[in-house]
Write a structure and sequence with these properties.
The complex is a heterodimer of chains A (about 250) and B (about 325). Chain A is an alpha/beta fold and about 250 residues long. Chain A has a single domain, classed as 3-Layer(aba) Sandwich (Rossmann fold). Helices cover about 25% and strands about 30% of the residues of chain A. Chain A contains six helices and 13 strands. In chain A, the strands form two sheets. A nine-stranded mixed sheet of chain A has the order 9-8-7-10-6-1-4-5-11, with helices on both faces. Chain A has a two-stranded antiparallel sheet with strand order 2-3. In chain A, strand 4, helix 2 and strand 5 form a beta-alpha-beta unit. In chain A, helix 2 crosses helix 5 and helix 3 crosses helix 4. The radius of gyration of chain A is 21 Å and the shape is globular. Chain B has about 325 residues and is of the alpha/beta class. Chain B has two domains: about 160 residues, Rossmann fold (3-Layer(aba) Sandwich), CATH 3.40.50.620; about 120 residues, 3-Layer(aba) Sandwich (Rossmann fold). In chain B, the strands form three sheets. Chain B has a seven-stranded parallel sheet, with helices on both faces. In chain B, strands 13-12-14-15-16 form a five-stranded parallel sheet. Chain B has a three-stranded antiparallel sheet with strand order 6-7-8. In chain B, helix 3 crosses helix 4 and helix 5 runs parallel beside helix 8. The longest helix of chain B is centred in the last third of the chain and has 14 residues. Chain B starts with a strand and ends in a 6-residue tail after the last helix. Classes of the chains: A alpha/beta (about 250), B alpha/beta (about 325). Chains A and B meet through helix 3, helix 4, strand 7, strand 8 and strand 9 of A and helix 3, helix 4, strand 5, strand 7 and strand 8 of B.
Chain lengths: ~250, ~325
């Protein structure tokens, strides 16, 4: 079984986001970037499945500008076998990314495609489902547990009401929740080894995919600020304030 | 052209957020039709037809729609889409799972999780866990939009009598099979719609200690929330998680106990009307969004809180 894992480079989850004064977006210059957190879970799961002898190859792919390749290199350092970097500049909408991934899937013919359930920058939560639609493959979104059984997967999904379990036939798409596993750190020797692993570079235009945005970003602004609150001295004061000032209990 | 709302239900009744999504749909266009896909879902279809803003209900029933599988639902909506300018659904796990599958089939760039309708093609949506709001304009002919239910009021739920049109079921997608659903049943209000939410974080230190929260929640008629740290530590089940990748809540009162206030948690609760933070670390980021902050050991504060509540003559429910 071959697993393709898609990873995205985003602003690190610990960075306090700052909106640009001209309203064109958020500040990304000199800001720490990392792999989208649930994409790390996707890589980890694929590597674990390979280590369990149930997969033969793990291929990491990213779509984006030059520096996006760092995320593929990181995936190689934690156990992916080789990488693909589809180069594309500017804003990439999930629809465009899923069309690019579709082209790569047609070429690479993986049995499974894993990725994070949502990117923490645009918070779209679309790419996995879109790719699955384009390929007409089953989708297991928001996965918190994956059991590989021959040519089937049993997947536990996190849903609003609790947990749902589905069984899907391979080939299939799985989008991963943060609770799926605990991603490992890359060891120094593995980081060195990863430098020798191959990364194929392809340009989005060579794949014949039009990546021009369909959605115009008119402005980006800061959310309204909450007015500063107060500290109360003790529980009695808190309850009195809630009862008589805020009138919520 | 009319807009098409995808109803969320459990085959017996509508799920409450369908009413919020209907409000958003009616702000895009006054001609709102709704599709309900299910199995033995006649009663839910009837409820849908009673929403006064809905002009027509399209009902599809078949055994393979029993479990809301996106692979079965998407083709039904795609087939209906030619008559509609917009497809609308809630941005909860039902809509998040389903809508992109529809959008890809329609070759449309979906707009996710909107919090405001500016016009029929322009919407406001939070990005970066709500740390920025983006105003976006869709240039696609057909628009697929998911809405953040807590940003829209529920519509009127009775008085309407829209015609219900039965439509033919589509084929079953054979490569996905439903196995089971573990729903956590509770007598408490639903987290997403509760007037008061009491949430615990890693500071609770154990699942057992959550009974301090449960006690207060029961007294206040509140729902119980949790931070991701508390869910990951196994103190409480995932359906309680509030945050960027959990639920977004906007109660009148949100009480955060032993929650430090990571950006990802704030994303799920900072629009609450009144926020209370109880934390022993006075520097915790949760205090930056709190209207009332109490710097105290929660194991002392919560029993005192319960005592004070017991002293009150009346408590709003």
């Amino acid at each position: 079984m071959k697993i393709l894992v898609a990873v995205k480079r985003v602003i690190d989850y610990n960075v306090q986001i700052r909106v640009k004064e001209d309203g064109t977006g958020v500040v990304t210059d000199n800001v720490k970037m990392s792999t989208n957190p649930p994409d790390d879970n996707a890589i980890e799961e694929a590597v674990k499945i390979k280590e369990a002898g149930k997969a033969t190859e793990v291929v990491a792919i990213t779509v984006g500008e030059e520096k996006a390749q760092e995320t593929v290199r990181k995936a190689l350092a934690v156990g992916a076998d080789r990488g693909i970097h589809v180069k594309a500049d500017g804003i990439l909408e999930p629809l465009a990314v899923s069309k690019i991934l579709q082209k790569i899937v047609e070429k690479e013919k993986p049995d499974l495609v894993f990725m994070g359930k949502q990117a923490i920058d645009d918070d779209c939560n679309q790419t996995g489902q879109m790719l699955s639609a384009l390929l007409n493959w089953p989708q297991a979104t928001f996965a918190s547990k994956i059991d590989v059984k021959d040519n089937k997967l049993e997947v536990t999904r996190e849903i609003d009401e609790g947990l749902e379990t589905i069984e899907i036939n391979v080939p299939a798409i799985v989008t991963c929740d943060l609770r799926l596993n605990e991603p490992r750190y890359a060891s120094l020797p593995n980081i060195m080894k990863a430098k020798k692993k191959p990364i194929e570079e392809i340009s989005a235009s060579d794949l014949g995919v039009d990546t021009s945005p369909r959605v115009e970003q008119i402005k980006v602004e800061e959310p309204p600020k909450r007015k500063a609150g107060i500290k109360v001295a003790n529980v009695a004061e808190l309850v009195q304030k809630l009862k008589n000032e805020a009138k919520v209990i | 052209m009319a807009v098409l709302l995808i109803a969320e239900h459990n085959n017996k009744e509508l799920r409450p957020f369908t009413l919020n999504a209907t409000t958003a749909a009616s702000q895009i266009d006054s001609e709102v039709h709704a599709v309900i896909i299910g199995n033995n879902s006649t009663e839910a279809s009837k409820q849908l037809s009673e929403l006064p803003v809905i002009k027509k209900v399209l009902s599809v029933e078949a055994p393979h729609y029993e479990n809301f599988t996106a692979e079965n639902f998407a083709p039904v909506v795609v087939k209906l889409a030619e008559n509609y300018s917009h497809i609308i659904c809630s941005a909860n796990t039902f809509g998040k799972n389903l809508m992109p599958r529809i959008a890809a089939h329609l070759d449309t760039s979906q707009i996710s999780d909107i919090i405001k309708v500016i016009s029929s093609d322009t919407f406001v949506r939070p990005i970066y866990a709500g740390n920025a709001f983006a105003t976006v304009k869709s240039n696609d002919a057909k628009k697929c939009v998911t809405i953040r239910p807590t940003s829209f009021d529920p519509c009127e739920s009775s008085g309407g009598s829209a015609p219900i049109e039965k439509i033919d079921a589509g084929e079953e997608f054979s490569n996905t099979k439903f196995v089971k659903r573990e729903e956590i049943k509770s007598d408490r209000p639903e987290l997403g719609t509760a007037r008061i939410v009491v949430s615990g974080g890693r500071g609770m230190q154990s699942g057992d200690n959550f009974k301090l929260i449960t006690e207060i929640a029961d007294k206040l008629g509140a729902a119980i929330g949790a931070s991701r740290a508390a869910v990951d530590a196994g103190y409480i089940s995932n359906d309680h998680q509030v945050g960027q990748t959990g639920k977004v809540v906007v109660p009148d009162l949100y009480i955060a106990v032993g929650i430090s206030g990571a950006i990802q948690h704030l994303a799920g609760m900072k629009e609450s009307k009144v926020i209370v933070a109880i934390n022993k670390d006075g520097e915790a980021p949760i205090f930056s969004v709190a209207d009332y902050g109490l710097e105290a050991d929660l194991f002392e504060a919560l029993p005192q809180f319960m005592e004070e509540l017991n002293k009150l003559n009346t408590i709003q429910k």
